[in-house]
Amino acid sequence: MDINSGLLALIIVIIYSLGNLLAGINKVRNEYGSLKNWLVNKEMIKQEQLKEANKLKDSFEEINAKVTEMSKNQEVQQTINLMLLREKLKDKLERPIERGYVYFDELDDINAMYSLYSNVSTRNGIHSRYERVKKLETKRRFEDE
């Protein structure tokens, strides 16, 4: 083998090796591009998930504010209902005390109302009137009128 053919063989081997090296570089570059795209997509997905989480958080805070407002409204309504029940019960208790006796149907209504009232309030003004009515003589309606 002469020098020219050896040199030619060496050049062919170098060119072949360079081709393989370039193919490897292209493969690495493609893999890097795929990895970069994957990372970018992952970051985009993460940002979308963060946006959705923030929307859910905002919705939760809005719902929580509405529930708090409704709760306050319900407390106000319960207070009003208790006041109305107290006044109605007070009126129902005063009539028999003034008369000196209580009708059976009145006593049933008074007992039912007092049962509800005593479960939510312990104010003694109503309690003492109720105890006085319970001690009154009980009559049927239209008996002595």
Short structural summary:
The chain has 145 residues and is mainly α. Helix content is 87%, strand content 4%. The longest helix is centred in the middle third of the chain and has 97 residues, at 3-99.
Whole-number mean pLDDT = 86
Topology as a string of helices (H) and strands (E): HEHHE
Biggest beta sheet attributes: 2 strands, parallel
- What is the terminal separation in angstroms? 147 Å
- Topology, number of strands: 2
> Percent helix among the residues?
over 70%
**Count of helical stretches:** 3
Q: Which spans of ≥5 residues are poorly predicted at pLDDT below 50? A: none
> Strand portion, in percent?
under 5%
Query: Strand order within the widest sheet?
Result: 1-2
Question: What would you call the shape?
Answer: rod-shaped
User: What's the oligomerization state?
Assistant: single chain
The SS-based structural class is mainly alpha
Rg computed from alpha carbons, rounded to a whole number of angstroms = 46 Å
Describe the fold and architecture.
- It is a single chain.
- This protein is mainly alpha-helical and 145 residues long.
- It is built from three helices and two strands, in the order αβααβ.
- It has a two-stranded parallel ribbon.
- The radius of gyration is 46 Å and the shape is rod-shaped.
How are the SSEs ordered, and which strands pair?
Elements: H1 3-99, E1 101-103, H2 104-120, H3 124-135, E2 137-139
Parallel strand pairs: 1-2
Helix pairs in contact: 1-2, 1-3, 2-3
